[in-house]
C-alpha cells in the first residue's frame, strides 16, 4: 500500500536536524512520496534544497513554490522573477502555496487577491497545477479562479475545512480537494465526515500538513505533539471510515490521483 503526502512543511524549524528520521518513518509507514510546501520565496528555495539533499533518486521528494497569503505583503517584481526560476526546476511540481486567508488577514485583502492572480498567471504560463490555501474566503477565491480555470491544468484546495456549499462549488469548478487530520478532530472537524463521501474518485487527495494538525484520534500520541508524514495513515483510516471504503482502496485511488495531479513518477513498493 502506497500513500502520497501532498503537503508537508518539512522546512519548518521543528524538523531541523530531524529530516532523515522523519522521512524514514514516513517511508516505513507506506508514505512513499512527499510534496514539500513552499510558503515564501526563501521557504520554497529551502524546500527545493531539501529535495536535492535528501532524495538522490529524484523519485520521492518534490516541492511547490509560492507565497502563502499571509506573506502577500512581501510580494514584488523580484518575487515573481525568483518564483518563475524555481518553478522551472524539475523537482518543483506546483505553484503555491497561494490563495486567500480572510480569517487572520495578515496581509491586506486587496494585496492577497493581487498576489493570487500573479500566481495563477504563472501557473497558466508554465502550465503547472496550483496548490491553494483558502480560509473564510471561498466565494472570493471562486470569483478569481473563474477567470483562469479553463487555462489551468489543475488546482487543489489544500487542507479543506469548509462547509458543503464551498465544497460543491469547488467540485463544480473541477478542483481537487486535500484532506488533512482536521477530519480527525472531534471538536471542529466532524462536519467533514459526511462531506468526504461527496468527493468523487480522482479529485480526493490526502495530506499531513505537518508539523501542524496532528490527528487528535491518533493513539498513542507523540509526546512532542508534532505531526509528521508517518501519521498520514491515521487520516487515511478516518477518511476511509466515513467514505465506506477499505484502507487499501482509498490509498490506491488517492495515490493515483496525487501522482497524476503532480505528474509524479511511479515507484516500486
Task: Write a brief caption for the model.
With 269 residues, this protein is α/β, with parallel strands linked by helices. It has helices spanning 19-28, 41-54, 77-87, 109-126, 138-146, 164-172, 192-195, 232-243, 247-262, and strands at 3-8, 31-36, 61-65, 92-101, 130-135, 155-157, 176-179, 204-206.
CATH superfamily: Metal-dependent hydrolases
CATH class term = Alpha Beta
* Beta strands, count: 8
Radius of gyration: 17 Å
Number of domains: 1
Span between termini: 8 Å
Number of helices: 9
CATH-defined topology: TIM Barrel
Overall pLDDT metric: 97
Give the strand order of the largest sheet, numbering strands 1, 2, ... along the chain. Answer: 1-2-3-4-5-6-7-8
The helix/strand series, from N terminus to C terminus, equals EHEHEHEHEHEHEHEHH
**Major sheet summary line:** 8 strands, parallel
Derived from helix and strand composition plus strand pairing, the structural class reads alpha/beta
The share of residues in extended strands comes to 15-25%
| Model regions low in confidence, pLDDT < 50 over at least 5 residues | none
**Overall morphology:** globular
The name of the CATH architecture is Alpha-Beta Barrel
Percent of residues in helices comes to 25-40%
Summarize the helices and strands and which ones pair or pack.
Blueprint: E1 3-8, H1 19-28, E2 31-36, H2 41-54, E3 61-65, H3 77-87, E4 92-101, H4 109-126, E5 130-135, H5 138-146, E6 155-157, H6 164-172, E7 176-179, H7 192-195, E8 204-206, H8 232-243, H9 247-262
Parallel strand pairs: 1-2, 2-3, 3-4, 4-5, 5-6, 6-7, 7-8
